[in-house]
Design a protein that fits this description.
Number of helices: 11
Order of helices and strands: EEEHEHEHEHEHEHEHHHEHH
Largest sheet: 8 strands, parallel
CATH class: Alpha Beta
Strand order of the largest sheet: 3-4-5-6-7-8-9-10
Number of strands: 10
Distance between the termini: 50 Å
CATH architecture: Alpha-Beta Barrel
Helix content: 25-40%
Structural class: alpha/beta
CATH topology: TIM Barrel
Number of domains: 1
Length: about 300
């Protein structure tokens, strides 16, 4: 193809299915309308090839329009873009999940997703402690397995699942998720969950990987010191920490400056001692919702 957009240096990780995922992508939570379209166009021009969205974000139409524009211009092919979406708590259950996936595909104007996740272990309008929830999750998972068989989804995974949620799924299913996406940054580092995923060959994906710019991260003395040492921003240090731990990251921004900074991570390396020191900053400090409320 002519006029190809230059790809970045983003490494890829391999799922237990053999498929790969770019380790860096664009998160699109809260990106709406023209802001979403502009951010995505800038991101693609900067080398982003991984887009993370969800039905509950309500921006699939905008993302689809931008991608179609690039596809039609032949500056980007569908195969070069990794697209993730998610089944919301409102869409849990076999029939609802099946219908939700088709709606996602229609809005994005694509024939398949690279990755489809269960967004949350709970079910909308059900109490978090309800004993019915695990069975509904399994029905959702069965629908996703079917969607994979049909070629509408290449791989399936979960989001916001803790160890008990994962154990239930693994004990009651013939397939296992390729990935678990959950809040992870230096001050919210659930090592038990990370280790469980690693032991079961489930890739870890972080959202809110720079803690939404919370001052607990931005003003931390150790991270500020590293930013000066490497001539990088504090968010870049936090992102590189995750990258070096083989974690997939999907930082969100709508600003060209930060979209460029976020992906500019490949010209420095933190030492093993620095990685360990950042590990020790964990305070179980959640910026987002805590899935431990879903007991089953």
């Amino acid at each position: 193809m002519e006029n190809k957009i230059a790809c970045s240096e983003v490494p890829k990780l391999t799922f237990h299915t053999g498929n790969t995922i770019p380790q860096f992508g664009l998160g699109t939570h809260q990106l709406q309308g023209e802001d979403c379209k502009t951010a995505l166009k800038i991101a693609i021009s900067k080398g982003y090839r991984h887009i993370d969205t969800a039905s509950i974000y309500k921006n699939g139409k905008e993302i689809g329009e931008v991608l179609k524009e690039f596809f039609d211009a032949k500056t980007l092919s569908r195969e070069e873009v990794f697209i993730t979406s998610k089944i919301s708590p409102y869409e849990q259950g076999y029939e609802k999940a099946t219908q939700a996936c088709q709606k996602i595909l229609d809005e994005l104007q694509v024939s398949y997703l690279d990755l489809l996740l269960i967004h949350w272990p709970g079910v909308s309008k059900m109490k978090p402690e309800s004993t019915e929830i695990p069975n509904i999750r399994l029905d959702t998972w069965k629908a996703m397995e079917k969607l994979k068989e049909e070629g509408k989804v290449k791989d399936i995974g979960v989001s916001n699942f803790l160890v008990p949620h994962l154990e239930h799924l693994l004990q009651n299913s013939t397939s296992k998720p390729v990935i678990n996406q959950f809040e992870l940054h230096p001050f919210c580092y659930n090592k038990e969950l990370v280790d469980f995923c690693t032991q079961n060959n489930i890739i870890v994906e972080a959202y809110s990987s720079i803690a939404k710019g919370d001052e607990i991260l931005m003003k931390n003395e150790y991270l500020v010191g590293l930013s000066k040492k490497y001539n990088k921003t504090v968010p870049q240090i936090a992102l590189k920490w995750a990258i070096q731990k083989s974690i997939v990251i999907i930082p969100k921004s709508k600003t060209e400056k930060y979209l460029a900074e976020n992906i500019d991570l490949w010209d420095f390396t933190l030492s093993s001692e620095e990685i360990s020191e950042i590990d020790s900053l964990n305070k179980n400090h959640h910026i987002c919702w805590d899935p431990s409320a879903v007991k089953n």
